[in-house]
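G., the chain you wanted modeled:
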Amino acid sequence: MGRPDGEDNADLSSDDSPWSDTAWSEDDDDEGSLSFEDSGEGSGLDSDDGLEEEAEDAEAGGESDSSEDEAGPRNTVGDVPLGWYKDEEHIGYDIDGKKIKKRDREGRIDTLLRNADSDTNWRKVIDAYNDEEVQITKEEAKIISRLLKGKTPHASVDPYPDYVDWFEYDGKGHPLSNAPEPKRRFVPSKWEQKKVVKLVRAIRKGWIKFDKPKDEPDYYLLWGDDTDTADNKRQGLSYIPAPKPNLPGHEESYNPSVEYVPTQEEIDSYQLMYEEDRPKFIPRRFESLRSVPAYEKALREGFDRCLDLYLCPRTRKKRINIDPESLKPKLPSKKDLRPYPRTCYLEFKGHSGPVRSLSVEATGQWIASGSSDGTIRVWEVETGRCLKVFNVGADVHRISWNPSPDKPVLAAIVGHDLLLLNAEVGDEETQMRTKQLLHIDESAPEEDADDKKPAVRWVKHDKFDGITLIHHKIYDLQKAEVVKKLESGLREISSISIHPGGDNVIVGSKDGKLCWFDTDLSTKPYKMLKNHSKDITNVTFHRRYPLFASSSEDCTAYVFHGMVYADLNQNPLIVPLEILRGHLSSDRRGVLDCKFHPRQPWLFTAGADSVIRLYCE
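Predicted structure as C-alpha cells:
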C-alpha cells in the first residue's frame, strides 16, 4: 500500500509525513479519544465540513475499505511479484480470469491540487496489489500512529504491567534449606586419591603410553624432491589429469559469421608465415550439418593420442615456482660501459634525396656519402663542412674509402658500374700519388684470341679524375673451398659485419632480427635479438671499442656493448645500451646506413630524410 504518488513520499522523514504529531495528537490518558489538529491543509474549510466528515466516519462504523476479512482481493495472481507486470497494461487477473487494467495515475501537480481542496485526502492510499484507492478510518490512523511511535497497536494493552507474585510461603526471611554444609565439600576425597595413585603407578610402569610428537629428520634430499621419498610414493600408477582444452568459439562453428571466414588472399598469406605462427584452424562455412565432411586427421590424431598415453611416464613432477626476475642475467651498469654514443652532436645537410651509403676515412677526418640524388659528397667531420660534391648522374648504391690513408680514393657503385674517384683531400704530395694510381693509357682494348671482348674494361671518366669499371659479361670468381657454413634461419639477410678478432659475426635480416654467431662455438646463432620492428638496413662493429650497432627502417639505431673475451670458456657479453632516434620517415623508410668512427666512440647514421647525423658521448 502506498500514496497515490508513492515515489514522491519515499524520501520524506517521519516528521514531515501526515502521521506525525503536528497533524493530530493523541491523549494517552483517555484511551478512547482521538483529536485532530489543524495541519494547514484544511484551514479554509468551514466547521460544517468537519461535521460531515465525522458523520461519514460514523456511518462507516469504524470499518475500512482495506479490510481483507469482508471481501477477498480482486487480484488472483497469488504471490507473484508485482514487478513482473511493470511493463504490462494490466496488473493481474480477477476471479473470472479477466485482465485487470491499470488505473491512470495522477501527476504530481494534480495530486497537490487535490490535497489542497480536501483535508481528508491525505488518508487515501493506493492498494498496489488490487490497484485501487482506499481511505483509512480514524481508528486505523490511530493504530498507524501508535506503531510509528513504537507503541502497541491498541491503547488498552499495557506492555509493562506490574509484577504480581502469585506464590506465597511461610518464613520469607529464611533460605530454602537450613541444613549445615556437608563434610565432602571441604575435605579431599580418599577415593579420588586412590584413583590418582593407580594412574601414576600405571604410567611409571609403562602400562599407559602417550603418543610422542614426531621428530622431524635432520637430513634432507640434496638432489631430489620430497615426492621421491618412500612415504610420499603412491601404490600403483600415478594419476595424471588430462589437459583441459579451450572451449570452442564462433570460429569453430560449421556455419560461422562472415567476418570469421577468411578470404582467399588471407589464406594465401598464411602460406608465407612461419609454421608456428600459422593458424591451426581455418574456419569454413557449410549450409547444414550434413554437409560437414569427416575430419581427415581423425585416425592420425587418435593414434598419436594412444601413443602418448602408452609412452607417457608415470611420474608426477612439481611445478617449480621461480621468480621471473631471477632468470634475467645480471648485466653491468651502463655507467661502467661508457663511452658509447648517446646524443646527436652534429647534422650534415646538403643532399636532396635519401642518403643510401656512408663511409668514414681511415684517419677519421673525412666522411663520404652517396645519395639517390646522383651526388657523392665529402664532408669534414669536425666542422660539418662539405668539401667536395661529385655529380655522377645516377643513384649511388654503395661507397667506401681506400683503407690506406696515403691514397684517398673513393670506390662507389653507380648504377651497374664501379667508379673509382680521387677524393682530392690531403696535401699536394698525397694528391699526386692518387692521380698516378688512377692514371690509365687511352689505348684501344685488346681483344681475345677468339675475337671476344674482355670481361671487364677500365675507362677513364670524362668528367672527374677517376676511372670506371665497365662489365661486358657475367664472370665467375676463382673457386675457393668452403670453410664453414653458418645457419642463421633468417628469411632474407640484409647485412653482415665481422668482429675485428675474426671469430664472431653479426647478421641483420629484413624481418627485424639480428643474429650473433660465435664461429668457435657453433654454426647456429649464439644470440638472436629482435629489437627492430622493420627491416634492418645495416650492422657494424667498432674497430677499437667493444661496441656494435644496427640501423633499421623504423627510424631508429640501436647501440650494443659486445665484449669478446680471450678465454674460450667465457661467452661473449651482449648488453643493449642506447636507442638513437631523430631521423624522420620518408616513403616508409628510416635509417639506411650506419658507420662507427675508426678512432672515437662515435656513430654516423644516414637517413631517408637526406640528413646525416653524428652521435657522440
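The CA atoms of residues 549 and 559 lie 5 Å apart.

Shout if anything looks off.
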